UniProtKB/TrEMBL annotation:
This is Fur family ferric uptake transcriptional regulator. It comes from Kineococcus aurantiacus. GO terms for biological process: negative regulation of DNA-templated transcription; regulation of secondary metabolite biosynthetic process. GO terms for molecular function: DNA-binding transcription factor activity; transcription cis-regulatory region binding; zinc ion binding. The keyword Coiled coil does not apply. Zn(2+) binds at residues 95, 98, 135, 138.
């Protein structure tokens, strides 16, 4: 969903479209997967552009998540990572050795989710699924 849809989407929910919210959504899109701290660092003042206060970043990410433009995934064991919803449709493969994050096709997770739904009557959110393990480089060490 392009940034130009942001004002209408927020207005429909009774929320304002602010320059900070637009910049934060653009930063999430630029970064792919990023913590709130990384988004804040990405928006740090440089080349005459104003920075965005970290508390504004946290609040804006919550609003963008609420309206369905940003999704939260727990890639790191400590802090959540955010990505644009339009970037969805993949699994996150997180290496416990080096911390690298790779993406994989969601097919196997959808099959697993269907089996869990059938067996346990539980719906798995495969759009926010992070699988932990070891990448090839760390396994070879």
């Amino acid at each position: 969903m392009p940034s130009t849809d942001l004002p209408a989407l927020l207005h429909a929910r009774g929320l304002r479209s602010t320059p900070q919210r637009r910049r934060i959504l653009d930063a999430v899109r630029d970064l792919g997967h990023a913590s709130a701290e990384e988004v804040s660092e990405h928006l740090a003042p440089r080349d005459g552009s104003p920075g965005v206060d970290p508390s504004t970043v946290y609040r804006a990410l919550a609003v963008l998540e609420e309206v369905g433009l940003v999704a939260r995934t727990q890639l790191d064991r400590k802090v959540p990572s955010f990505h644009a919803v339009e970037h969805g449709g993949h699994l996150h493969l997180v290496c416990d050795g080096c911390g690298a994050v790779a993406e994989a096709a969601p097919g196997p997770a959808r099959e697993m989710a269907a089996e869990i739904l059938s067996r346990d009557d539980f719906v798995v959110d495969t759009g926010h699924l992070a699988l932990r393990g070891r990448c090839a480089r760390c396994r070879d060490r």
